[in-house]
Design goal:
Blueprint lengths: L1 H18 L12 H18 L9 E5 L5 H10 L3 E6 L7 H9 L8 E5 L13 E7 L7 H14 E11 L20 H4 L2 H10 L13 H19 L5 H10 L2 E10 L6 H4 L4 H5 E10 L1
Parallel strand pairs: 1-2, 1-4, 2-3, 4-5
Antiparallel strand pairs: 5-7, 6-7
Helix pairs in contact: 2-3, 7-8
Length: 293
Amino acid sequence: MELISRLAGRARRLRERLWGQAPWDASRITDEWFRAHFGYAADVVHQWLGEALDIRAARLLNFGCGDGITDLALALRYGASAIHGVDIRREYAKLPRIARQQLGLTRLPAGLTFETIAAGAPLADRHVGVDGIISWSTFEHVGREQLLPILRDLHACLRLGGVFFIQIEPLFYSPFGSHLRRYDDVPWRHLMAPEDELWRIVEAHRGPMDAAEVDFGFADFGAEGYRRFVFNEYLALNRLTADELVALSAQAGFAVLRQERRQMDLLIPDSLLRQYPEDLLRNNEILLLLVKQ
């Protein structure tokens, strides 16, 4: 199977050299989830990684690639020539269909490859010498006991001087850190209400959801199944803070090149201010650029 995949990849690369990339048209985009990941997410990744790498020539690894839309944008919009996405789910298998629907793209770029992995499975034994790693809104879903081993493994994947861009949004203690905003727009409710009450709110929701928050997995589950899936994701969140992420990255051997912590300016209930530091409650997002020295 691996040999067949390599041969198919070579055939795609040869076709691209002979005939170029398949045409695509961003004006066809109608799905807001696709628009956000093809546009905003790819722009941010390019801005941060582009400080340290020539993305067009770099060998990139995307840890937690999801449906692969951002990888596709990096290839089509920014000329990335080698991106390998890994994930524990196979959402990326939908990418050819999604790209055809949203862009009129008839074939994916040859430099775009994907792989399904087991949770916590090491990557450095087969992905070594990578120039850059991307992780977009993934590390809040990693089990606490796996955080440091995974960071160390990703450190081993990078070449010396290679860089790692991590983004997490929303962080757990921020106003909508439950990841349940599709169903509940009350800030910090997850820090004030018990789990059974949160589930009743999610279960009772019958209004529209923000289109930018509805991914392409919705159709697989149906409305009711998607509620349960999203709520189970909430229950499994590791509650990682920005400070903890930076500290774990240092333990794994990384040095920080740049970081940015974004805040939400909402009125915080007094009961929460008595329990948690204000910065923790306001810190909605962290963007972190690390280097292997």
